[in-house]
Amino acid sequence: MSQPAPTLAAGTVGTVETQHLDLPEPVRLDCGRELHPVRVAYETYGALSPRRDNVILVCHALSGDAHAAGLAKAPSGQSTRDGFGAEDRDGAGGRGLGWWDGMIGPGKAFDTDRFFVICTNLLGGCRGTTGPSSTDPATGRPYGPDFPVVTVADMVRTQRAFLDALGIERLAAVAGGSLGGMQALQWAVLFPDQVDAVVAIASTHALHPQGVAWNAIARDSIMRDPAWQGGRYYGTGRAPHAGMGVARMVGHITYLSAPALSEKFGRRLQSADAPRYTITEPEFEVESYLRHQADSFVKRFDANTYLYTSRALTYFDLARQHGGGSLSPALEGVRARTLLIAFSSDWLYPPSASAEIEQALRGLGKPVEFEVIEAPYGHDCFLLEEARQTPIIRRFLAGATSRKGSS
What we know:
The chain is an alpha/beta fold.
């Protein structure tokens, strides 16, 4: 039975359809290879100004896609609104909503009455942009493990080539959370003269060793699944769903905090007042929740894309890549105004990581603002605490507008 269509709240961008653009030139990658052809999936919200100077690029996190706002014209049936408790918030109507719908639209943080907002599926993705599941023109089969290893910088250069194809030279802002925030920071470093402002939320200049370790466990769980078949599982009738499910469970736990888990689940049993003395079935509500997360995720996401995107995330290190091991030299060329938002309970991308960026920028005399929001939901706060982020971002972007207008 089909689900009822959700009732869109005030401030929505309405019904949207994902579009696709084929880049005219190959993309040169950090690994030394060139990739061609490259198709980019994207959505836009709002109206482009005659001077093309009101563009905000929104970058998504590991499990996101180009559908950032509004109601999908053709919902896939599996929602990308992954934040902790998203189903409690959205109900069945959330399945067609963009992953950051509360932040993009008229009067919202990224106000489409003023800005033309673009979101692309990142390079290596599985939701419309060229990735491991795409056809390799050399063989006529999916790339699989033959897809080149990509970096966050490769993703950003692909976005730059995409914007060139649209005739957009400059960005009023680049914004994103988690891996999306990494892309925003990479934009400011790679293309300093083409970005007016950066909004990096729950992000970092380099993932801490604990984060690298958790990502390694998640990737290993996929590659140790016999159904992964060395990455050549396409068309075989088998896919590494078991390993992918474990990877999702591991990842999801890193996005949460201990207080949030205790408040939502405690030690409540799933379906009885006493233990059933079973090894194979969930006994506790939190176990059942993780299985549900895993089962939902494997239906919409490609395992190889998870491997490639996770690896890109762990490679990201602005100090190593651009500063000879030091953060300040890496950020010396940044010209954008920068807003950093972190959350008190986020142990995966802790506020200390954003504080290091702030200190480096401030020491260089760069304009930077840093806000820490007290919230209990861990890393998922960037998806859940939309109402508390909105006034901070609106004020920051209004400052950019007034400064531009007064110059």
